Amino acid sequence: MKLKIVFYFVFVVGTMNSVLSQKEIPVNTIIENVARYKNDLRGPYKDIRWFCTDGSIRAPKDPCPDNIGPGVQHARYKDEVVALGKEHHIYLGQILAFTDVEALWDADFNHSRLIQYQLEKYLKSVDNGWILQKGQYYRGSVQVEDEEAWGINFYKWLLTKDEFLKGNYFLIRQSLKDIPHTGDDDVAQKMRSQSKVISDEFLPFMDLRVKIHGQPEFSDIVKVKNFRQKHAAELSSDLNKKIDGLIATMTVFFKPVDVTKLLQKAPLLKGTTLGNSIERFIGDFGSESRPSILISEASQLLLGIREGILNEKRPLARLQLLDVSLKLEEIIFKNAQQWQPQSVKDQLEKICYLGSASTGAGFLELWEWSQIENTLSQSENESMTLAELTTFMEKARGAVEWSAAMVKANYQEVTNTYGQFEPLAYGFIDDRIRGSIALHLGKSVGELGDFIARESALTNMVLDIPNQSTLRGLNPGYAFGELVVVSGSPEEVEVTSDKIYVFQRSPSDLKPVAGIATVAEGNMVSHVQLLARNLGIPNAALSDDNLQSLKQYNGQLVFYAVSDKGNIIMKLEKNMTDQERALFVKKERSAGKIEIPVGQIRLDQNLILDLRSVDANDSGKLCGPKAANLGQLKKMFPDKVVEGLVIPFGVFRDHMDQQMPGKSTSYWAFLNDMFAEAERMHANQIPELEVEKYQLGQLGILREAIGKMPLKQDFLTQLESDFKKVLGQPLGEIPVFLRSDTNMEDLKEFTGAGLNLTLFNVLDKERILNGIKDVWASPYTERSFKWRQKYLLNPENVFPSILVIPSVDVDYSGVLITKGINSGNDMDLTIAFSRGAGGAVDGQSAETYTLFHNGDYRLLAPSRELYFNGLPKNGGTTKLSATFEKPIVNDNNRNDIQELAQVIRTTIPKETKSDYSGAYDVELGFKDDKLWLFQIRPFVENKKALSSDYLQSITPIIDLNKEVSLSKKI
Known about the structure:
Layout: E1 3-13, E2 15-25, H1 27-38, E3 45-52, E4 57-58, E5 71-77, H2 79-88, H3 101-105, H4 112-126, H5 144-158, H6 162-167, H7 169-175, H8 187-201, H9 206-214, H10 220-230, H11 237-253, H12 273-285, H13 291-308, H14 315-336, H15 344-360, H16 366-376, E6 383-385, H17 386-419, H18 427-434, H19 437-456, E7 461-462, E8 472-475, E9 477-486, E10 499-505, E11 515-520, H20 527-535, E12 539-541, H21 544-550, E13 557-562, E14 568-572, H22 578-582, E15 609-610, H23 625-636, E16 645-647, H24 649-656, H25 667-683, H26 688-707, H27 713-727, E17 736-742, E18 758-762, H28 765-777, H29 782-791, E19 800-806, E20 812-817, E21 829-835, E22 847-851, E23 857-861, E24 867-870, E25 878-881, H30 891-912, E26 920-927, E27 930-938, H31 943-947, H32 949-953, E28 963-965
Parallel strand pairs: 7-14, 9-10, 10-11, 11-12
Antiparallel strand pairs: 1-2, 3-4, 3-5, 6-28, 8-12, 9-13, 13-14, 15-16, 16-19, 17-18, 17-19, 20-21, 20-26, 21-22, 22-23, 24-25, 26-27
């Protein structure tokens, strides 16, 4: 078996460039090798050698002579281990003393080697040494003192560079927990690993393991001892030893951090600004035992180190600051469980300090914290309204989600790679989160959410899972079907329209489903989210813990509903009410479907059009709404819209009248014969799945034939001419986008967002010509067809036109919705942006805001996308690498968007003589702060879902002006 993995190379030469390299990993071979290494006395190593200063290599009993200087002794890798690194960039059993510092930092591969080192250290802790189960006793293979000396040199090199600390603060700080440099161990991680090993071998220990992983307390030591006594007859001598080891580790872990020794290993900080702050902390709180005081003061100091570390220029002093930072995090982590707030005020304070500590630890960027800090610092008030408390909770919940997303952004790619040959790797990210302040922040926010739910009577009722306040509805709707919980990659999951799916993240090309919930929701204006909103598919966001809790219900039939206020119901079939069952009484096949209007379509227009010659009146007649509306925008905003060509419906229809190869009929007749046969099958009561299977088979034949279709000579001649005349350069010398633009899109009750093909930045002449045929064929793909079949009465009358526009290599791009989706106010705006081209619409984790009509704005989510699309002048796309220390969107951009939205709202209806009064969905981008418009369409919501009597019945009326005393018991 071979699985494909993509690595991205990013390097800087004046500007950042990238090379995309695809390599197939021989998964089965690695699995076999890993198993072999576990039983090999040398593990992944072949022998031990001395490595001398002059570059010579000597036998173990022949050390480097004094006249050439000292050397280091360590193992050499087996040949296949070396080959695996060279050919597939997978590095097993890494020895630091054998590694160049820049090679471990591995900037060209987004720090993959460093992350692999961290991941392998985790695997060793949970699997008895992993590939070194026997090799860990291979004397001389790794020398601890050499590894520590190397670690110090690594950080001396790394921490000289301000840009590394700015862009990779989280990763650098996390690496200090794994790369030896001080002789310290990560006791918390060791404790979690030991408890996992015991529960894996002895299942009754699982409850204690969950407790130790989620809410470790000093009293757990007694619980472990009692467990050992209770199960004494069942425990082997080996398990008894492991439990003894766990108790010893827990005893060390719960030993209070000696605050007075914070500067013991940081002599370089004496007399510096931050050093003085640390000394004051030691003097004032060295003997403090109250958890609330220790957490509040340690959190402020932790954040202060993050904010001030760049002012310290000495790399070793920076290293010492980071080590102090880790000790402060340990103080906070150990005391968080001991701080038990009694009032709402106390709970708000705890959340605020844990939020600032999470920022100090790198889980949030400083600019992100600045967006929520003021709201989370409001606990000085005597009371707050329910609306203010809800805003507080939403922003605090955002901090929890952003923290988890930071861990995933840094570690998910390597984890997925290793997970292909070592499933234990999938526990790494969870371990990192559970070992962080974010764990306690999430618990505290959940407790506040439970309180607010009680006060507002707005509660989720999702089976019997815990921590339901972390669930939130995104799109209203209801569904009934089998629950499918997918904890791994969603891309290989074959979804069906009668099931409800819970994903870590939604697939990039989601086919119709009954309902969906995701941990990583992407963003609320991606194509998947818009389709779900349009079709009334219930859609919610949830936490990792929620997903794990739902696994026990995988495969069961459930009812699932999300109200328009965002509260969620999920229950087993047996618990459904009569009202809920009645929602799914079988309706006529056409119920709820709409018909594509074709009365005005102009199929006689078979010449290519200049974008300037079309406007909104031509939508559904000559071309689809993308081209028609962009032509309208070109007239209204000539300097914000590129030039373009439109290949109208008539050109497609003209080509479809040609005879289909190998058939005695035309392409068009073949298509219509397929629909006619499907109708006959329905009339004969053939099951729907069989009809669908027949149709998809025929469409596959048609797509392949269209791909080989000859383009008519008069069309080719005009295309060559118009490229020069309209776009300014010959065909094949200017990169363009080819955007499918059908008459099924942007109907009053159907958006069709993202269902058909867009080809990015195509330069080569043959690729453009073949791309035209690919775009024509794209409405007949399985995904596009299934969405249409779900909603359209006459899917056979789908006609594609094509919008051809020159590429703009934007710095960032995204979506504007001219209403506040989150706020519910039609006068507000929602924007979502990602770096590079094609941002936000494809479901990336986008930087998302509500822009309020009074001029204020609110950050709903930052971007956590490591990679983005660049559009080189020679065509194609490159993958560039991002860091998160700066926001994507600036104040000037927000002002430009506010002004644009105002013009769109007032001018579009007037210019198009339309009675449409709803919101618009606009795709746009910025290049050097200049705004470019790419698309505008009506923002279609599912009116049936929004107005459903049932959904209204499950949404309580909330008095948001209700005053809540902050002295009230939490």
